[in-house]
User: What shape does this take?
Amino acid sequence: MASRIRTLIYSQVDFPSFLEQEIGLTLVSYEDGKYKGQCPFPYHKDNNPSFSLDRKDGGYVWYCYGCSEGGTIVEFFSKYYGISTIDAIKRICAKFEISDDFDTVIKSMHNVSSGSRKKSAVEQEHLMFCDLCRMFLRNNFEDRKKMREIRDIILQVNEALSKDDVHMLKILRANVSEII
Assistant: This one.
């Protein structure tokens, strides 16, 4: 269950934008969905880019080759702020206005994970939608009103995903395209 909660959280956060805007880390994109930069942890005096981000399974994972550590945004928050995993999850949910009703979301994720051809189409539509939202949020990170609007649409998207409704996902993606 903890693994699914991590997946739920890290798939909803634009981790590169957070690192650049909140932590002050300069990231360089070197491939599609991959970034590198200097390690942000204060105990690691990094002169060469040893910190990397890689997009996997709908979110970003980090790894520092100097520290030999990595993980999702949950592990990053835990390590960076020196807090427990549970406190990291709570802090991320509060900061990024993520619903912490994990039981409902995990049940919907479980329903989607049984693979049929139709669900594969739903999942593809969902991924395209998530990429569109991620780009929008990255460009409008400071605009809380727009972030709330997108968050509300993402909640509708997750509901459509749990109901296996490809048509609704396409409509929602078109609506987001109009906002952008």
Summary: The radius of gyration is 17 Å. Helices lie at 2-10, 15-23, 73-81, 85-95, 102-113, 117-139, 144-162, 166-179. The chain is about 60% helix and 15% strand.
